[in-house]
């Protein structure tokens, strides 16, 4: 990638273009980030050449290859090599040796994740497990959307329970009663409403709530 056109603070190298890696790379490009995508399979590279501005066929387990591609100049790296543990670990190790300060790694199981962290990954993600947990929360219909963070904190979109209807938040006092914070309200045909103490909840409103995961789950179950 031409260094003259690269925004270093927002530059990302994505290594491994399976379903997850391709999705990450495409989303980053759509968000306006400078992305270098690296994949060892020639057919995959060819198929994505019209979608990703900078995609190359290369072996990321080779340290010198990464250096020639100016990978050390990138601010972030995403290693999405899930099916080949050896290749994943060697790639993470190479990125660490090249001095990258923000390395994300896809792992297929906890053992893979622990090894990735030991050789230099700063963040480990488990796409399959995370998606399975998210779907489990959504399939019952209690939540419309759900995101859980590593520290046991969650944000969810859920239907307003009856006990909050036609009352300002200061009166229903969900923070004290349920241990969660209402961040905002989405009302049909209206723009997002930032929640305040005097914001009145209407039947049919969707609430964006945040708090400890278990408390968010319990609050959603009130509907």
UniProtKB/TrEMBL annotation:
Domain RCK N-terminal: 9-125
Keyword Lyase found: no
Example of a GO biological process term: monoatomic ion transmembrane transport
Pfam families: TrkA_C, TrkA_N
Superkingdom as given in the UniProt entry: Bacteria
Domain RCK C-terminal: 141-223
Gene3D superfamilies: NAD(P)-binding Rossmann-like Domain, Regulator of K+ conductance, C-terminal domain
InterPro entries associated with the record: NAD(P)-bd_dom_sf, RCK_C, RCK_C_sf, RCK_N, Trk_Ktr_HKT_K-transport
Keywords for the protein's UniProt record, in alphabetical order: Ion channel, Ion transport, Transport
Protein name as catalogued: Potassium channel family protein
Taxon lineage: Bacteria, Pseudomonadati, Pseudomonadota, Betaproteobacteria, Burkholderiales
């Amino acid at each position: 990638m031409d260094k003259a056109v690269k925004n270093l603070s927002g530059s990302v190298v994505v290594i491994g273009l399976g379903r997850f890696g391709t999705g990450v790379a495409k989303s980053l490009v759509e968000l306006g980030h400078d992305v270098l995508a690296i994949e060892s399979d020639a057919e995959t590279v060819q198929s994505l050449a019209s979608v990703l501005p900078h995609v190359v066929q290369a072996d990321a387990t080779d340290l010198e290859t990464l250096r020639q591609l100016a990978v050390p100049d990138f601010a972030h790296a995403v290693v999405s090599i899930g099916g080949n543990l050896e290749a994943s670990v060697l790639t993470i190790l190479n990125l660490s040796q090249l001095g990258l300060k923000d390395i994300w790694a896809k792992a297929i199981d906890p053992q893979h994740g622990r090894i990735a962290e030991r050789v230099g990954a700063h963040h480990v993600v488990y796409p399959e497990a995370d998606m399975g947990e998210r779907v489990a929360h959504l399939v019952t219909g209690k939540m419309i959307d759900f995101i859980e963070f590593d520290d046991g904190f969650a944000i969810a979109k859920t239907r307003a329970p009856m006990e909050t209807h036609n009352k300002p938040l200061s009166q229903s006092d969900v923070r004290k009663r349920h241990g969660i914070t209402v961040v905002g309200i989405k009302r049909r045909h209206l723009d997002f409403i930032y929640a305040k103490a005097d914001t009145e909840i209407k039947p049919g409103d969707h609430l964006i709530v945040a708090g400890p995961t278990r408390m968010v789950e319990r609050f959603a179950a009130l509907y």
